[in-house]
Every structure is written in C-alpha cells, then in structure tokens.
Amino acid sequence: MNAELTLQLNQLVDGLADEGYAVVDNFLSSEEVNQILQLEEFKNGHRQFKKAGIGKSQDKQINEAIRGDYIQWVKPEEAEPPLQVYLSKLTELISFVNQQLYLSLKDFEVHQTIYPIGSFYKRHLDQFKKDDKRKLSVICYLNENWKEEEGGQLRIYLPNGSKDIFPLAGRLVCFRSDLLEHEVLPATRERLSLTGWLLDSLRV
Question: What is the pTM assigned to this prediction?
C-alpha cells in the first residue's frame, strides 16, 4: 500500500470512528476517473443500465417518486481494468478498516450509477430490514469539474443536523449503512458514481 493511500485510509478510519462517516478526496486520481468514464458501459449508460428499485428480492419495486437513478452491478471477475483499480482499493480499504476498527468485513458489492438531470433519491437507510450484511456504504464520484450550483449533493442526516457533500470527481464518501439516513438531491447535470457496500458476509 502506498503512502498516499495509507494517509487516506487513516483519514477514513478517523472519520468513521468519530462521526460515523468520512470524506476522502482524490481516492481515485483524475486519470483513473477519466479511464472509467471512457468505458463503453458509462458512455451508453442510459441504454444499458437498469432502472433502480427499492427493497430487496421479492419486495423490490420501482418508484420514481423515491429514486430516479439507473444502475449496473459490477461483477469483479468480469470488470474492465479501470474498474479493477477501484475494486483493488476497496479490498485494501476493507483490510485496513478491519485492522483499525476491529470489524469483520469480508466482501463488497458495487454498482455503476447514473442519475439523470433532475433525478433524486429521497431520505433512506441503506441496510435492509431483513438483511443486515451491509455495514458500510461507499460512494466514489466520477463527476469532472462539478460546481456547487449544479446541486446533486449527498445529504447525510446526523444526530445534530445534516451534512451536504458534493459529488466531486475522485471523492470517496463512506458511512455507517445501519445508522445514517441520507438522500441524494437533484442536480442540473447528469451525476455519475460507483456506489457500493462493505459486507460482513460473502456476496451470494
């Protein structure tokens, strides 16, 4: 693990321990972000990705009044090299967090995400009621040259208020899936990310 990544992961662990969430800028470099954006999957995302639903398995439903994003799950064994770079960093993140916070994280799940202009995801909790394997939520943004006036921020609800985080390219946000409700606000431009969860059991 290089020195920069070690510094970033220390910052992440400190944030999780103190606040329940952490923001790490430049988790992916601008070059790494650009290589992901050049993948055909993202270029043709509106045609290839599927409308995201709410809930799990038989309880899943599509409701655009609650969420409006399109997603495509990443299969690690089939991921293109630019995505493998990110997945490799997630693997190192899991190992580091387990060592520092004494968690028993074992795996991750990730999907590519596109929020069309004006779409949103209303306030919610990431951990399912009938399935608690999601322990930490991780989002890495892929939006180059994002401006605050374009909106699209992640709003995390904390015990003493809320925190707005803008979707800047390369920025990683990590937070407790079981504790922190959050929402995605509308934006005036398309909003791209890699959204995932760190799990305490293996993916099915």
Answer: 0.91
